[in-house]
Design goal:
The protein has 236 residues and is of the alpha/beta class. The chain has seven helices and seven strands. The chain is 44% helix and 16% strand. It has a seven-stranded parallel beta sheet, sandwiched between helices. α1 crosses α7 (209-221) and α3 (63-77) runs parallel beside α4. It is globular, with a radius of gyration of 17 Å. The N and C termini lie far apart (38 Å).
């Protein structure tokens, strides 16, 4: 039986790494993001056929976009076995003193609302089938606030951690499980949005997106009787 995963933020970073890792395990994939060219490159890298992968440009911060996307996904693949919320954003001017309302709402819309909309779009068929895994890529900023992350990012990530807990509290009896992954520093394009992007020598000491993809595989591939509720992973 073919298994299908929906991945947000699949055009780069952790989302792309998760897509490539799942493709190696013969999953059918739905690749979501705002930049279609980046998603198409991810699809090419997976080596999957057009029947096995769906590229769908989607602003997950807009509930109507998410609902329309979900209808397309379920028409094509019928079921979704895993949802990986890997999309995330931040802003260079992120401190309380300089954070704009526009940047704040952009972070909340992408990092939190988008994940919630996607959960609500695919949870009903998981609940009905009594199976499904949802993995939310949070951040260690979802455990402890820091000036490095900024308040908008921190608020969104604490919310995403709470959403993960709520899914497990309400849905484990329905066969659905959720995992929150809390990574430390990862060398991804999101680093370029820091007020001062880290130099190459600092990036070399960070984790790679592939490391986080391995955490996602662990959460998804565990026997259905087990739930990894949280994973904290940092550079050694």
């Amino acid at each position: 039986m073919n298994r299908t995963a929906v991945i947000t933020g699949a055009g780069s970073g952790v989302g792309r790494a998760v897509a490539l890792a799942l493709a190696k395990q013969n999953w059918q994939l739905v690749l979501l993001g705002r930049t279609k060219a980046a998603l198409e490159e991810t699809a090419r890298l997976t080596g999957l056929t057009a029947e096995q992968v769906l590229v769908h440009g989607c602003d997950i911060g807009r509930v109507d976009d998410v609902n329309g996307m979900a209808r397309t996904v379920l028409e094509k693949f019928k079921t979704v076995d895993a949802l990986v919320n890997a999309a995330g954003t931040n802003a260079p001017k992120r401190a309380l003193e300089v954070l704009s309302f526009a940047d704040y709402h952009s972070m909340i819309d992408t990092n939190l609302h988008g994940a919630y909309y996607c959960v609500q779009a695919f949870l009903p068929q998981m609940r009905e089938r009594k199976t499904g895994t949802i993995v939310n890529i949070v951040s260690d900023a979802g455990k402890q606030a820091s000036p490095k992350a900024g308040p908008g990012y921190v608020v969104s990530k604490f919310g995403l951690a709470g959403l993960t807990q709520a899914i497990n509290a309400e849905e484990r009896g329905n066969g659905v499980r959720a995992c929150a992954v809390f990574p430390g520093n990862i060398d991804t394009p999101l680093l370029d949005k820091r007020p001062i992007p880290p130099p190459a020598e600092a990036r070399a000491r960070m984790m790679l997106p592939e490391d986080i993809a391995e955490c996602v595989l662990l959460a998804i591939n565990l026997p259905p009787r087990a739930i990894v509720e949280e994973l904290i992973v940092r550079p050694r």
